[in-house]
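Possible regression after last week's pipeline update?

I re-ran a chain I had predicted before the update to compare outputs. Posting the input and the new output here so someone can diff against the archived version. Not blocking, just want to make sure nothing changed silently.
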Amino acid sequence: MAEPRRSAWSLATPMLLYSCFCLLVGDVLFGYDTASFGGILANPGFINQFGTYDPSTRKYAFTSLHTSLLSSLAFIGKFIGCLAAGPAIEWFGHRVVFFCLSVVSVIGVIIEITSAGTAAGSGRYAQFIVGRIIVYISVGLVEVDVTTYQAEIVPAPFRGLVVVSLQLFLNAGSLVATGVNRAFSTYTSHVGWREEAVAALRRLRPKTAEAESECEAEVQAIQEALHQHVEKAPWLELLRGSNLRRTMIVMAYYFFQQTTGQAFVSTYQTTFLKQNGFAAEAFTYPVINTALSFVAVIPAMYLVDKVGRRYSLLTTFLLQAFWIFLLAGLGEKSNKGPVMLNAIVASFILYWFSYNMGGASIPYLLGGEIPTAALREKTQALGTAWNVLWAFGSNFSIPYLISDLHFKIGWVFGSISLLAFIFTFFFLPETKGRALEEIDAIFATPYSPFRKGIPNFTDAERGVGQLEGEVEKGNAVSDNEGRSVKHAEQSSLEGTR
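New output (post-update):
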């Protein structure tokens, strides 16, 4: 009589959850910095420190150029961090890279803090930008290090939930930052790891799995699927065979993440609100917005494994387009009364809520699970670096777009959201519940959104979840095979040669 199948959550051991949690704390850094800086740009104390004095108004202010440079140049650091992360993880492992990025972050923050002067106009503008660039090196390292590590150690049935949870922690950091911004909104002063394969799995999986030799079976499945070992492939392999399709999908979603309007809300919402008749609530609405976006991630963490990546993205892109189109349409109306003004704010908030339901976090998940094991770190590094280029472009251009287009900027971002919806429908296959090795078979055949059914998989491709009970207990692994297992698993779990 067959033994009853255990639920996926029976694999969620305390050690696994603890390991994921420790790394996710790094995402609080990015969330705090992004939301904090959005409020800082409109903070009187910061403006007085680093702005330019205007004799006609007798006030300090930022020009569009200064605002663009402050918000966009930091992405030079993130670009460096993203590109360096892949090779660094392959050589030194996820654990060492995480320690290093923590040190880099502290150094950057110290440089930022010490750039403030003691009087109006005495802030060292260039030093503050240098500090932001260094902080964003650590942000780039975080995005690649955390997502690739989690994608490899988390069982397939709830990989989506864990990786998408990065957005929850990012929003937690944002929530704290917007609260701090609100508290200081009127201040004018300057206050304002390598281990053996099976041993590592035994620590991450339930004790019953060790008793049933399932950890050994998991390593064997990885070994068979990866043809006895994983050799990290060169960069050019990203553009060959089915890898090209994977690379393009990852890069497409990192493009959409930045160009559907997220920077418009995350970085410039306070400034935009102040310029468009909401000055009294310009620091309050971001707190509400961030709190609701934090809530939005919770169902997203469940739905990404329940309904899948594909349907989650189709929904989020469609809703993003709808709300930001509504924002643009209402904003162009003249003589806006209280009801219409409230509808504009609601559209603004609901757009951000929709973005956090999938468009914000699923690109990281796809970047961690779609690439083949031999190219996972490099694909994620290239994808996030590409993401940074568009983040730079968006952050630099938005102040000018706001100045020239005002509410019409919504038509631009809404159109890109519709493009993302169409791309998802025609090109993104569903990968929910699939072992990383099994995803290779999905990309072995062309994808059609009109074809029903899924590819047939061999035992090796099904992954550990469906190999349970199929591997006979007591099968001895030869010394040569054992060395291959160890090498394969070190490459897969640790990202080392």
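Follow-up from reviewer: compared with the archived run. The CA atoms of residues 28 and 173 lie 4 Å apart. Marking as no regression found.
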